[in-house]
């Protein structure tokens, strides 16, 4: 019996070590109040956080509720200029990622996000970047109350860091906690977003996820958006960024993630109807404009949606199937 117990312990340890934590924090060891006093990436504040933009009241350790204990709160500015941006960064992410276990080529980030006052038109959230570009991220639009993605995509052979709308049609009002996250598979070029337990694999016609990027910086931030005229607070708690493999994510191979991309929408462009072809039963369809507003939706039985009343332009269509939700882009002509 002793040998059986020993072998079990070894097996459990091996499973645990298959995911390697790159950076994490729950802020519970911090002191309530100001995080730091330098706002130009100078001397670090509490927890080794370097701050950029704003003043001391814009970076606070707060008690929002008993469940989360202490959390990190940002207050974005009241203008539609770079002066309203806020950012907090620790050192060491790049070194930890470079030292990850061989084969753990999927970056996974999870965190609790608090929508806060949800005023103005700000975009608070989290992303991972390197010295020259962004890789992947997730943020909350305080105007639309929708989560948006960030992704490095290659379009016409040119990689760039894009804001992605249409990854979720669920709105979250002020003062709401939401558990969210994202993954970036650098080898296979796959990005997923998870919002309140619902996972979407990013798929945009004419674009592919840029492969082989390595993160060097984990950023908690609040950015202004066009037309912003008001400050807003938001908060982050219990974040974990780790390096994992496909088995850790609960799939046999990453190819299984890619196989969920089984939805086709046509014709594209279209003037009247969008037809939806899927290898899985379609449950619902939701069309979203570039501002993140839902403009057409239905519980789909005939796999077709009427877009005749939409104005000309580019739209995102979320197709919920039995195997998850997929995102496509189409043009209304």
TrEMBL record:
Pfam family, one: Por_Secre_tail
KW Plastid (keyword) present: no
Signal peptide start and end residues: 1-19
Residue stretches making up the Secretion system C-terminal sorting domain: 265-331
Entry keywords, A to Z: Signal
Cell inner membrane in keyword set: no
Highest rank taxon of the organism: Bacteria
Protein name: Por secretion system C-terminal sorting domain-containing protein
């Amino acid at each position: 019996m002793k040998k059986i117990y020993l072998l079990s312990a070894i097996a459990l340890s091996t499973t645990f070590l298959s995911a390697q934590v790159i950076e994490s924090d729950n802020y519970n060891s911090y002191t309530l109040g100001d995080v730091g006093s330098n706002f130009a990436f100078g001397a670090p504040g509490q927890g080794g956080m370097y701050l950029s933009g704003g003043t001391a009241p814009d970076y606070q350790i707060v008690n929002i509720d008993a469940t989360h204990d202490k959390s990190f709160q940002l207050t974005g500015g009241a203008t539609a200029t770079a002066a309203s941006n806020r950012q907090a960064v620790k050192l060491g992410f790049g070194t930890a990622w470079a030292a990850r276990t061989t084969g753990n080529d999927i970056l996974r980030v999870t965190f609790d996000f608090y929508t806060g006052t949800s005023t103005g038109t700000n975009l608070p959230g989290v992303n991972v970047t390197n010295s020259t570009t962004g890789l992947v991220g997730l943020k909350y639009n305080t105007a639309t109350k929708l989560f948006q993605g960030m992704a490095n995509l290659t379009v016409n052979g040119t990689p760039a860091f894009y804001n992605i709308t249409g990854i979720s049609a669920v709105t979250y009002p002020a003062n709401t906690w939401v558990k969210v996250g994202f993954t970036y598979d650098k080898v296979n070029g796959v990005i997923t977003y998870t919002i309140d337990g619902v996972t979407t694999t990013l798929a945009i016609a004419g674009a592919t996820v840029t492969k082989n990027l390595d993160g060097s910086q984990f950023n908690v931030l609040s950015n202004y958006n066009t037309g912003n005229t008001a400050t807003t607070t938001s908060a982050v708690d219990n974040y974990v960024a780790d390096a994992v493999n496909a088995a850790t994510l609960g799939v046999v191979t990453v190819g299984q993630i890619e196989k969920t991309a089984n939805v086709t929408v046509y014709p594209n462009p279209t003037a009247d109807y969008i037809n939806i072809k899927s290898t899985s039963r379609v449950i619902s369809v939701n069309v979203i404009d570039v501002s993140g507003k839902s403009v057409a939706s239905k519980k789909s039985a005939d796999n077709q949606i009427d877009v005749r009343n939409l104005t000309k332009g580019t739209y995102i269509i979320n197709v919920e199937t039995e195997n998850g939700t997929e995102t496509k882009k189409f043009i209304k002509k």
